[in-house]
Amino acid sequence: MTVTAPPTTRAGAGGPDLTRAALSGRRRFSNHLATTAIWAAVLLAVIPLALVTYEVVIKGSGVMSLSFLTEDIPNSYRREGGGMAPAIVGTLLITGMAALMAIPLGVFGAIYLNEYGKQSPLARLIRLMADVMTGVPSIVMGVFIYISWVLLVGQQTGFAGALALACLMLPVVIRSSEEMLRLVPDELRQASMALGARKWKTTLTVVLPAAISGITSGSLLAVARAAGETAPIVIVTGIVFAPNSNLFDGFNTALPAQIFRNASQPFEAAQDRAWGAALTLIVIVLGFTIIARLIASRFAIKER
Amino acid sequence: MARNDADLTSRPSVSVHAPGTASAGVMPSTAPVMQLRDVSVYYGSYEAVRGTSMPIQQNQVTAMIGPSGCGKSTVLRALNRMNDPIPGARVSGEVLYHGQDLYAKDVDPIQVRRRIGMVFQKPNPFPKSIYDNVAYGLRINGIKGRLDDHVEEALTQAALWDEVKDKLRKSALALSGGQQQRLCIARTIAVKPEVILMDEPCSALDPIATAKIEDLMFELTNDYTIVIVTHNMQQAARVSHYTAFFTAEVDEKQVRHGRLVEFSQTGKLFTNPADKRTEDYITGRFG
């Protein structure tokens, strides 16, 4: 009698067989298949990432030195040595300025869309435009800034580059921030409202802090993408061989533009500099990521 | 009678109602602090609740009971204009608070909610520290100075102080469900409202946590007027002085409306209901 079997009896001695062997062959097979497929997908996804990183680190570290980071760009591609200081300064300033313009604007835009506009016709239109803007190729944005700003002020500047990058970042920041705000539970807004908080107060002190780490991640992704943009920089900033820390006067340059120019030369010295610039760019983007994570965790509430 | 001239317009007002002073026998305990007169609530063209009239007595617990969809939560939310942000929501009739219609043109809903607070069905502490949760309402209402004292007082009143006094800087999300709900009550009473609306405050809690909240409600009637919506008839019988029974009815056009069937003292409503529908509901024949 299986019903009266004492609990010490091992499974299989009349009770249901709970071992894996009891599963049908087909179920075991499909389980293996799914597991294998998932692992294969992970490996396939990691391979290009690992190869790119490996290649850039190996080739880039060959020219990496303090002088590479601090010296001017040689004004002949053929010449050995020299550095990337102007492009590093340019990348930091141009991307920084673009972030300064696009992130606050984008976050406020997202607040409008999610907290105020909601499903109103204006909000729907803005959402549609942001989605369309996300798809605009960066070179088109470069041309747009060229005719609407560079021609207006009469010269290519770092600021023109920042404007182009900001336009590229803006829709990404808006849409990713809006998604994060949407995840904030409505109960929190109601609780704040029931305490007599006005809407802007609720938004600033409850909704925004609850979404800040997601907003930071989304904005950061936009910054990282912008830091790697080449086409608009080439079109609107011109080129310099010595650092120009004034975004509003004189030509400028940035790392992606230097990678593009140097890598397309037949001279080994230029190609080496391109690898070095690539490694520098990756490290800078990594640095952005780490800083943003730290900021986000400072704001975020510890669960325990 | 400081309470009768509660200024609900958006003119800035620093004075916050202090229950300790006003409840010292100035008003008889049976004076209605709020009065609903023929209140109907609409969502768009749909009339969710039709023609409700009832008083809310001062320093008493008023319970609203009834089956799901009978409009009791809708009426509760109409008492401090929490339905305002819902597109198309509209109230007709009068919701009087010290004789002032809360839906009059120049009434600022923010001022209303500062005096008539709310505790929700699901505990919804902010993702902030325990301290900041309680201090939040004080800060937004511009109450400066001894914030620590106010926080301690509110947590003590909510019977939570002993459990959390050593971890005020820890996240409120680490508390248990029952503790979170008492924290939400502390957060509400910190701004010293006159009326506290509770929308099924125990439905997400176990019986022990429920008992604690019920004890707490009884304590709070010393200083506050409480209106509670509950599914649980035993709870209404245990905690309330007055009970309103709502039900859903289908009218001649086959549209469902919530309606107030009966309002009376709790003891009377449960032992000697005037209406057959109330009797059917409380004896379990319906709902």
TrEMBL record, chain A:
<feature type="transmembrane region" description="Helical">
    <location>
        <begin position="33"/>
        <end position="54"/>
    </location>
</feature>
<dbReference type="InterPro" id="IPR000515">
    <property type="entry name" value="MetI-like"/>
</dbReference>
<feature type="domain" description="ABC transmembrane type-1">
    <location>
        <begin position="88"/>
        <end position="296"/>
    </location>
</feature>
<keyword id="KW-0812">Transmembrane</keyword>
<dbReference type="Pfam" id="PF00528">
    <property type="entry name" value="BPD_transp_1"/>
</dbReference>
<keyword id="KW-1133">Transmembrane helix</keyword>
<dbReference type="InterPro" id="IPR035906">
    <property type="entry name" value="MetI-like_sf"/>
</dbReference>
<keyword id="KW-1003">Cell membrane</keyword>
<dbReference type="GO" id="GO:0005886">
    <property type="term" value="C:plasma membrane"/>
</dbReference>
<protein>
    <recommendedName>
        <fullName>Phosphate transport system permease protein PstA</fullName>
    </recommendedName>
</protein>
<comment type="similarity">
    <text>Belongs to the binding-protein-dependent transport system permease family. CysTW subfamily.</text>
</comment>
<feature type="transmembrane region" description="Helical">
    <location>
        <begin position="203"/>
        <end position="224"/>
    </location>
</feature>
<keyword id="KW-0472">Membrane</keyword>
<keyword id="KW-0813">Transport</keyword>
<feature type="transmembrane region" description="Helical">
    <location>
        <begin position="157"/>
        <end position="174"/>
    </location>
</feature>
<feature type="transmembrane region" description="Helical">
    <location>
        <begin position="274"/>
        <end position="296"/>
    </location>
</feature>
<feature type="transmembrane region" description="Helical">
    <location>
        <begin position="87"/>
        <end position="113"/>
    </location>
</feature>
<dbReference type="GO" id="GO:0035435">
    <property type="term" value="P:phosphate ion transmembrane transport"/>
</dbReference>
<dbReference type="InterPro" id="IPR051408">
    <property type="entry name" value="Phosphate_transprt_permease"/>
</dbReference>
<feature type="transmembrane region" description="Helical">
    <location>
        <begin position="125"/>
        <end position="151"/>
    </location>
</feature>
<dbReference type="InterPro" id="IPR005672">
    <property type="entry name" value="Phosphate_PstA"/>
</dbReference>
<dbReference type="GO" id="GO:0005315">
    <property type="term" value="F:phosphate transmembrane transporter activity"/>
</dbReference>
Automatic annotation (TrEMBL), chain B:
<keyword id="KW-0813">Transport</keyword>
<keyword id="KW-0067">ATP-binding</keyword>
<dbReference type="InterPro" id="IPR027417">
    <property type="entry name" value="P-loop_NTPase"/>
</dbReference>
<dbReference type="InterPro" id="IPR017871">
    <property type="entry name" value="ABC_transporter-like_CS"/>
</dbReference>
<keyword id="KW-1278">Translocase</keyword>
<dbReference type="InterPro" id="IPR003593">
    <property type="entry name" value="AAA+_ATPase"/>
</dbReference>
<dbReference type="GO" id="GO:0016887">
    <property type="term" value="F:ATP hydrolysis activity"/>
</dbReference>
<feature type="region of interest" description="Disordered">
    <location>
        <begin position="1"/>
        <end position="25"/>
    </location>
</feature>
<protein>
    <submittedName>
        <fullName>Phosphate ABC transporter ATP-binding protein</fullName>
    </submittedName>
</protein>
<dbReference type="GO" id="GO:0005315">
    <property type="term" value="F:phosphate transmembrane transporter activity"/>
</dbReference>
<keyword id="KW-0547">Nucleotide-binding</keyword>
<dbReference type="GO" id="GO:0016020">
    <property type="term" value="C:membrane"/>
</dbReference>
<feature type="domain" description="ABC transporter">
    <location>
        <begin position="34"/>
        <end position="273"/>
    </location>
</feature>
<dbReference type="InterPro" id="IPR003439">
    <property type="entry name" value="ABC_transporter-like_ATP-bd"/>
</dbReference>
<dbReference type="Pfam" id="PF00005">
    <property type="entry name" value="ABC_tran"/>
</dbReference>
<dbReference type="InterPro" id="IPR005670">
    <property type="entry name" value="PstB-like"/>
</dbReference>
<dbReference type="GO" id="GO:0005524">
    <property type="term" value="F:ATP binding"/>
</dbReference>
<dbReference type="GO" id="GO:0035435">
    <property type="term" value="P:phosphate ion transmembrane transport"/>
</dbReference>
